[in-house]
Amino acid sequence: MAVQKLPRSMQLLVDQLADLPGIGPKSALRMAMTLLKWPEDKTRKLGQSIRELRDKLCICSQCSALADTDPCSICSDPMREQEKLCVVSEWDSLLVMEDTGFFKGRYLVLGGLLSPLDGVRPDSLELDKLRSRLQQGRITEVILALGTTLDAENTGSYIKNMVEKEFVQVRVTRLAQGIPLGSDLKFMDKETLKQSMRFRQVI
Q: Containing H/E element for 201?
């Protein structure tokens, strides 16, 4: 007896959905079945949103965050403090920091953390962009908001050594250790982040 196979178009969609983080083949199939039950205009709007995600988003040339415009709304805001630069590993960490409403400086998104075993080396990160920002001479403090994982600690040490060697006038601080050891910044609650920023430490 032949095994019933999914129609080719359905199988292609299931395979693509299953590539998303945390989505297995069964969940992908349920999602595809749900999409089939949606009204046609709703599924077309979803498809259009996915297409525009690639077509209309850009990377900010100043901070490397995802944005609708270049420079992004934070980098182009004259009311933000230019002397403080908060360095985060990924864009979603920037969103978490902004959600606290406490930090009023600028950002730089590294695009990851140093991890030699995973092939992430200094030239894989936005360290040249960090140097370029510091060379402008406006920044007096670099705040490391990278979390407390081993990769975060190694990345923080690398940046600290680089800044101390090349930009002696710039102070390097880190978020206070209210953040549990081994945790990722984007999973922290607002109050913990706010206190960590307020009582940041010189390193």
A: strand 201-202
